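[User] Once you have settled down, look closely at the record that follows, and write a paragraph about the fold.
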Amino acid sequence: MKNDFSKLKSKIFIRVLLIGGITIFIGLGIEYILLDGFLQNFFIENFIDFCKSGLHLDSNASSKIYQYLLRNNKGLLMSIGLYVLLLFIFYQSLSRFIKYFSEVSDGLDQLLEESVDEITLSPEMAFMEAKLNKIKITLEKRKKSAQESEQRKNELVVYLAHDIKTPLTSVIGYLNLLDEAKDMPVEQKARYVGITLEKAYHLEQLINEFFEITRFNMTTIVLNKKEINLQFMLLQMADEFYPMLVPKGKKVEVNVQDDLKVYGDVDKIARVFNNILKNAIAYSYENSTIQISAERQQCSIVIVFINQGKIISKNKLDKIFEKFYRLDTARSTSTGGAGLGLAIAKEIIDAHGGTISAESNEESTKFIVTLPFNI
């Protein structure tokens, strides 16, 4: 910031020196040219002539006025004159300084009005011009991102509302059949009850998606930190996902030292790993292995999730941690989710002072979580 103001400070300093120099030069000029210099007699004669003609005084009285009023008070009059002159010149210069504030104020107005024009200031205010334009670009990006996020959210809500109708219609239909056919065979009744229960679970999942959207917008992340054994957490999580892995021949391998620990919020860190692993399972090939590893690197703990699946394009990787963004919009909400999992994971990791990123190539997709060793 000091370097930013150097050009402006230099200009102000030069202007102050210039004001002082001009004031001294004019003051000395008045004293040594007009009062005590070669124009002294000319000044005295004109002053006396003024007293005679304007004030109707005689030569003797006019001379005494000059003597007592000007000659004997020359120092005081010079001081007053220089002070007035200094104020006048300073006022003129101050108007230039005020212009800088006016330019910044106009620039801020452009930010508030969301003007499309680039903010332009004086050359010596180039640093402030660059900062204001940077803020302008940042605000425009945030506005665009918020609009896109809101649009995705609205689209998702429409999809969810539409999807809710299907299982709800099925639940009502099968319940009506069960209610109307009192003598329905036991096997058929059991099949209808099973279908109804399945549709009800699906309906519950869709409703939970709505709650997830609301919680994401309203919840402020509060951390309750404690020591976490990474190996135990990740192994336990892999066991919990076993029913999702087996039907498609997938498995999870955890390669973490048994004494590797990190300090953070247990529930929230578990939610991060849960969301990443769920995403890896959803988008990995059948009969493939998802690898999870963790190691200490200098002052950080790095946890890596690798799965074999279709390559994720650079454009999608840039948006993968945005809320309501879904990698595959063609996937149904029952499998694709609300597009909040990775966005929530990023917020949690950010709150812990860590980072989360994704890489993808033709062979695999990798999610990398970095957490400070001592949070």
Q: What stands out?
A: The two ends are 30 Å apart (CA to CA). Residues 329-336 have pLDDT under 50 and may be disordered. The chain has three domains: 2-117, 148-218, 225-372.
